Amino acid sequence: MKAIVCESYGPIENLAYKDIDDPAPTGSQVVVQPEAIGVNYPDGLLVQGLYQAKPDLPFVPGMEAAGEIVAVGPDAQRFKLGDRVVAYIQNGAYAERVLVEEAACTALPRELDAGVACALVCGYGTAHHALKQRATLRPGETLLVLGAAGATGLAAVQIGNAMGARVIAVASSEDKRALAVSEGAEIAIGYDDLRGDIKRLTDGKGVDVAFDPVGGEAFDAVSRSMAWNGRLLVIGFASGTIPQFPVNLALVKGYSVVGVFWGAFTRKEPEVFADNMRELMAWATSGQIEPHVSERAPLADAADVLKRIHARQTTGKIVLVP
DSSP string of 232-284? Predict the structure, then answer.
């Protein structure tokens, strides 16, 4: 079968598209033949050796796959041949067949698009966990979303809207801001005068919850723009700069800085993760949320897609199609 293989840590363009052996399930494992494979910002960090984890080389990157089960291990009980699922794994998804523990699979309704299902995993999963468990976002609160046109940012915009918050989106261009508004933000602003715009839009109060996958100078502005009892969610550092936080701000402004590590959450709280996935799946099926799949690219183009994501040249969710 064809797969994208990381043979050495380094530039994204070094990824190889090559033949590897088909996987054979053992125990409670299943093999999924993907209809769609999700592409995520951390995938690019992983292959460059810049992520928290470093898999043994060589390895196949990719965390999300949605499609049909084509093989099952002898101990598999929840799923059978022909079942349609979406799966979350540590790596291995950028392939024509994907080996996964059946416990990491969620049943996928026939009417739900596979690309949409992939969007629900890492991007929407991160935003949902951040806003529900880490921020306990309440109806009527003001939610600020940085990087609001990216896959995770758009997820936060939609989920925040679904949870009854007033959503202020932040994005770098007019097109991206228009997209965020079309996806549920009340208003969208740029980064040029972020602190001043937040002050103006909140009548000086600041934001109750800030969702920050960007870091850098934007984090610095937001850290000075939080409301009393606010929650500043640290999601990631797409800007490439990990900011330094003046802890006196948390003291005098009375807010919390809250880390969101969705991958660790899925391993440490699998039951809660499963509940979250069921809720997201129900929201998507009913139309309460509508993940924006902006592009479907051939599996062979994975390196190009990842490079564009890291250059912040994309919007919404991009999926690979074998």
Answer: EEE---TTS------HHHHHHHT-EEEE--HHHHHHH-HHHHHHHHHHHHHHH
Rg (CA), the chain: 20
- What's the CATH code of the domain at 85? 3.90.180.10
Q: In degrees rounded to 5, what are phi and psi of residue 313?
A: -105, 10
- Residues 151 and 41: their CA atoms lie apart, in Å, by 9
Q: Say yes or no: 44 and 140 in one domain.
A: no
* pTM of structure: 0.87
Residue 152's nearest CA partner among 184, 198, 178, 121 is 121
Model pLDDT, residue 312: 83
Q: Tell me, yes or no, whether 216 and 238 share the same domain.
A: yes
15 secondary structure, DSSP code? -
DSSP 187: E
Residue pair 97/22 in contact (Cβ under 8 Å)? The answer is yes
Q: In this structure, is residue 283 part of a structural domain?
A: no
Residue 186 lies in a domain: yes
Residue type at position 214: V
Nearest CA among 108, 77, 87, 107 for reference residue 23:
87
Q: Residue 190 belongs to what domain range?
A: 123-263
Query: By the 8 A CB rule, do 218 and 212 touch?
Result: yes
Are 196 and 142 in contact, with CB atoms under 8 Å apart? no
Going by their DSSP bridges, the two strands 64-72 and 84-88 should be labelled as antiparallel
Examine the domain organization and report whether 139 and 180 are in the same domain.
yes
DSSP 8-state code for residue 148: T
Distance (Å, rounded) from C-alpha 130 to C-alpha 210?
A: 10
Q: What digits encode the pLDDT tens for the residues 34-79?
A: 999 999 999 999 999 998 789 999 999 999 999 999 999 999 999 9
DSSP codes of every residue in 130-151: IIIIIS---TT-EEEESSTTBH
